[in-house]
Amino acid sequence: MSQVRDGWSTTSTGGSDQGTVRRANLSLLLRSLREHGGRSRARLAADLGLNKATVSSLVNELLERGLVRDGNAERGAVGRPGTIVEVEGAGAYGLGAEINVHHVSTRAVDLAGTVVSERRRSVDTRGLEPDEVVDRLVELFEGTMADLAALGATPVSAVVGVAGLVDHDRGTVSVAANLGWQGVGLASLLRAKLHDPAYLLEVDNEANLAAVAEATPGDPDRRDILVLHGEVGIGGGIIADGRPYPGSRGYAGEFGHMLVDRDGSRCGCGRTGCWETVIGLSHLIDLVAVDTADVLHSADLDLEGKVEEITRRASAGDERTLTALHEVGRWVGTGAALLTNVLNPGTIVLSGYLGEIGEWIQADVEGELAAGVLAPEAGGTTIARSALGFSAAVHGAAAVAIDHVYDDPTLVPRTVQTLEATS
């Protein structure tokens, strides 16, 4: 026999169904506190459409798990004021990490999204075997874990972003052309080197994670977006109605390998004319550099340094640099128009190095978008620049890691017994 209790459907006989309902309600309440701020129990009940006894019980459990705290008395309340319930930042921690062509990095955040640790190391990952790259990342993991230990904490989950096609369910990097990887069981390799950690450990595509970093919870302007994340290669992420869209097998967003120039250059994936061959950072460097001795080709200059040098030359009015930027901008706009005709996003966000050079290419991108989109006014799609630079993916990885707690607050064990509150 089916019944509905506090807006969630369940059955009258299944204990597991009741547990599912409670977890869903715990998630609903905790997310509401994150997105809309602290409120009294009575106000939460009214906002969420749950009865007061249910909300009181849910808050009590979240208090026991250390995920919320009681704050000040509610202001302006009629009658006896209720106590404000707030997210407890120190209640849980998530760990994000990234493996890219020229670096590995980690970032840890608390439940409120506050950064508690950031580490980064420049590594030419293309010159190393996957096992060696993972060793470098594990060194950062260990440092980040030490930072968390100083807070008396361990992560609930860790998410690792990789520049390549990822089989999320298996934790396998199917293809990472710019890393030279194929069929690498990254999740199992990491678990072994981390001595089978108790926390959740997942692997995802870096551009998908960069997209998550741009999708601010509760922001209506960031509910339907495409993110173009550029470094040596180009990846993309899709946010649809506020949620990441991974595709049927998790491979959505490989925008960099759209065919745009059949007579163009050979791509790292082995094909000819992929979009990333005309908008990737390597191509821009080739266009800007005067010769092979140019500092832009120096192995001693990291990606950020190379982008800074390009923008310095652009600011100085260097004609060769400006011409190169205009060419890349037009190609970005050409691909953006193709994507807009298919998906009609509200916003296309230029991320990674594309965001860093956005000042110099945005007008060209918008011009090609307007010319190439069939719908009037480019279908309402606008171009925005990320403020996260090269760290967008690791930002998103940490956000996904901590979001697991919002999806299922019971991942955090009960630590404190409290009295039921009724206000």
From TrEMBL:
Domain HTH marR-type: 29-72
One Pfam family per UniProt: MarR_2
Region described as Disordered: 1-20
Alphabetized SUPFAM superfamilies for the sequence: Actin-like ATPase domain, Winged helix' DNA-binding domain
InterPro entries hit by this protein: ATPase_NBD, HTH_MarR-typ, ROK, WH-like_DNA-bd_sf, WH_DNA-bd_sf
Gene3D superfamilies tied to this protein: 3.30.420.40, Winged helix-like DNA-binding domain superfamily/Winged helix DNA-binding domain
Family the UniProt entry places it in: Belongs to the ROK (NagC/XylR) family.
Stated name of the protein: ROK family transcriptional regulator
Organism: Nocardioides hwasunensis
Lineage: Bacteria, Bacillati, Actinomycetota, Actinomycetes, Propionibacteriales
